[in-house]
Amino acid sequence: MAVTVETLEKLERKITLVLPRGAIQSEVDTRLKRLARTVKMDGFRPGKVPMAVVAQRYGYSVHYEVMNDKVGEAFSNAANEAKLRVAGQPRITESEAAPDGEMAFDAVFEVFPEVRIADLGDAEVEKLSASVGDAAIDKTLDVLRKQRRTFAQRAMDAAAQTGDRVTVDFEGKIDGETFSGGKAEDFQFIVGDGQMLKEFEEAVLGMKSGESKTFQLAFPADYHGKDVAGKTADFMVTVKKMEAAHLPEVNPALAKSLGIADASVDGLRADIRKNLDREVKNRLLARNKQAAMDALVAKAELDLPNSTVQSEVDRMIESARADLKQRGVKDADKAPIPDDVVRPQAERRVRLGLVVAELVRANALQAKPEQIKAHIDDLAASYEKPADVVRWYYSDNKRMAEVEGVVIENNVTEFILSKVKITEKAISFDELMGQN
Question: Does 209 map to a domain?
């Protein structure tokens, strides 16, 4: 029997499902008989409970279960027969206009849209490039040295300098009242490392051990402490101890402490370059992938299934609440996060997912086994025991699916970049790494 599909609007469709009452009742009876063989009730031996008692106790739940199964099966068969790609779950309601001896249900649902992608040939994409120079290696070396610095107490008459570790007592007041977090004793920080606000660090610069100073500090309007944000406090600080920083020399001993195989400065710099090259490659890939995807979405026309968007909205809100909970926020699972806050991003994700899926299907851009293997090998290369990392990926289907998704995205990116008009743009290492 042909399935009649009614178009309601855009992607919304309706199918009427008709089921014979006799078949439903027959299945209910079969399940109740099966249940009667194992059900336990007070006053009866197992398997000896009368059918009338079983039906009275379990009839409603079994009937509900059968209806769900039969209607679901009927909907699946009808959708397959009509060759529909159903998006989300159907809303099913019983219809009163059913023939004698039958039950009718209206299934209202959405279908996935037809995706139309215009010619990518006239799209323009700015493709970024960057390289690792000696300055980037020197800066990384400085970071590694700072991580291993030691401190020695300075003379009492020495003035605090950038890089010194100082121990202070301080108290801040707003309108004459000490505020939460505004007072501490024996508090340590390194001048110039940005642990304290700039005005606080500047006040301490030049001070000597045992010296006290008062100064005003204006908290930024976007300061994380809402009680003091945008307000000006009066501070008094006393320097109790000052220690000068001593950074290790760049020599074979430093290289050895960092696990460099040949314990040489050249080997250390080569290892840093290799790691920075990998980071630059990954960041460029991410930036260029984003630009390619933006160009793709701009060339696509499609309607968005509301059910899929709502599912993504719900998933994003749940993820946001889980993140808040991990940060220790009280009652994070009840945090009010309006749909409108995440809906634009949810819509973009759904749109991009549908467009990418169509591009993959139309151009055979699925991930090949050798591509997946190469990507995992690349991920594992930065670890001490790559073989263990490779086994870790291959031992979990979820991890493998994530890798497959990344490889498909890379295939799509390469395909797009092969079609569009590309403008090459070289940027500095610092700009790429977000240090400017």
Answer: yes
Residue 2's pLDDT is what?
60
- Confidence (pLDDT) at 151: 94
DSSP annotation of 264? -
Q: In which residue ranges of the chain is pLDDT below 70?
A: 1-2, 435-436
Residue 342 lies in a domain: yes
Number of domains in the chain: 3
* Pairing, β 86-95 against β 165-174: unpaired
Please state, in angstroms and rounded to a whole number, the distance separating the CA atoms of residues 145 and 312.
Answer: 45
Q: Could you tell me if 321 and 403 lie in one domain?
A: yes
Of 52, 84, 111, which residue sits at a domain end? 111
Q: Which domain CATH number covers 25?
A: 3.30.70.1050
Q: Please give the structure tokens belonging to residue 297.
A: 């979405």
For residue 101, the model assigns a pLDDT of 83
Q: What is the pTM of this model?
A: 0.71
Considering the domain boundaries, does residue 139 fall inside one?
Answer: no
CB 209 within 8 A of CB 240: yes
Distances in Å between the Cα of 304 and the Cα atoms of 27, 308, 317, 388 are 39, 8, 19, 42
What does each C-alpha distance from 247 to 199, 241, 254, 256 come to in angstroms? 26, 19, 11, 16
Parallel, antiparallel or unpaired: strands 421-426 and 124-129: parallel
- Element at 304 (helix H, strand E): none
Whole-number pLDDT of residue 242: 94
Domain that residue 363 falls in: 261-432
Asked, for residue 253, whether it belongs to a domain, the answer is no
CA dist., res. 248 & res. 18, Å (int): 81
Q: What are the pLDDT digits (tens) for 176-216?
A: 999 988 999 999 999 998 899 999 999 999 999 999 999 99
Query: What is each CA distance from 386 to 244, 250, 378, 381, 394, in whole angstroms?
Result: 41, 28, 9, 6, 13
